[in-house]
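FORM 12-B: Structure-to-Sequence Request
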């Protein structure tokens, strides 16, 4: 059996990995969009929130079980992401970066307004599929929801890795992200690959939203803070690096939990729960000042 202090420490590690898995999924969605458009999708959090509401609507109104609703929401979110690109982003993607940023901010406001209009601002409860059970693993008490969240997050990341490494569609997506003009010359339909990227990002956001709602409650603004954490994770790992998004998300989740743990024992008594979000912003600032490309990003090379 482990000592009590070490048990608490390991529990914080597992909980941090669970939270970090959600950050990683949302950060990965940000990276996919950034690699293809060069901008941050500020509506990513609202898209994830809308997806969580769709899952809740399927379960509460239509009586679906969780996992069929989970799969149905992924399909709807993917189609919605493709549709957003084709109808909203594509007409402005050849314009300035500022124009696309403004469009994503407009999407944020529009989606948030739709959620409020459709379902109201009252918090709802989306129950997770893992229950409230706990497991004793070598003396460490681990919540089933944390284990399930980690498993789902890593499973999604593994499936994406298979997609990008071993399928023609994945190779085409990578080619478009690296050099869209050359990809177009070899016959790749760049516009549809970009739309597919938006669809994948929307589906990743949907998973993040559905995993977040059972712990924080379902409300129209539940993913606002999560988007900041995800952005910090993406910057930490490298805004153009998918693996960096995953490592950055997991690292940030563990870091914030360990700071909270240390504050309980006097090691970081200045750190409170209210400082979690400012700490994520501090991570962004420090990384941009010290290593702007992030841990796994490549430094920008300019010819003199």
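FORM 12-B RESPONSE
SEQUENCE OUT:
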């Amino acid at each position: 059996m482990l000592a009590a202090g070490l048990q608490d420490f390991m529990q914080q590690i597992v909980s941090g990995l669970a939270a970090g898995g959600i950050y990683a999924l949302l950060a990965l969605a940000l990276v996919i969009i950034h690699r293809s458009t060069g901008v941050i999708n500020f509506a990513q959090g609202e898209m994830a929130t809308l997806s969580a509401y769709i899952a809740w609507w399927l379960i509460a109104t239509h009586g679906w079980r969780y996992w069929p609703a989970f799969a149905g929401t992924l399909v709807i979110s993917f189609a919605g992401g493709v549709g957003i690109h084709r109808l909203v982003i594509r007409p402005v993607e050849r314009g300035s970066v500022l124009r696309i940023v403004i469009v994503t901010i407009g999407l944020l406001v529009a989606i948030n307004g739709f959620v409020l209009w459709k379902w109201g601002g009252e918090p709802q409860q989306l129950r997770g599929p893992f229950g409230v059970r706990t497991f004793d693993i070598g003396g460490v008490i681990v919540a089933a929801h944390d284990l399930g969240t980690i498993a789902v997050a890593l499973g999604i990341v593994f499936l994406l890795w298979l997609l990008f490494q071993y399928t023609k569609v994945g190779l085409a997506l990578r080619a478009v992200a690296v050099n869209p003009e050359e990809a177009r010359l070899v016959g790749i339909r760049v516009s549809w690959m970009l739309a597919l990227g938006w669809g994948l990002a929307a589906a990743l956001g949907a998973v993040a939203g559905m995993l977040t709602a059972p712990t924080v409650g379902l409300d129209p603004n539940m993913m606002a803070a999560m988007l900041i954490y995800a952005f910090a994770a993406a910057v930490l790992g490298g805004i153009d690096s998918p693996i960096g998004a995953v490592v950055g998300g997991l690292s940030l989740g563990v870091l914030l939990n360990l700071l909270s743990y240390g504050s309980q024992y006097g090691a970081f008594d200045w750190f409170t729960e209210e400082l979690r979000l400012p700490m994520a912003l501090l991570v962004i600032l420090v990384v941009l000042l010290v290593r702007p490309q992030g841990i796994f990003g490549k430094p920008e090379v300019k010819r003199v």
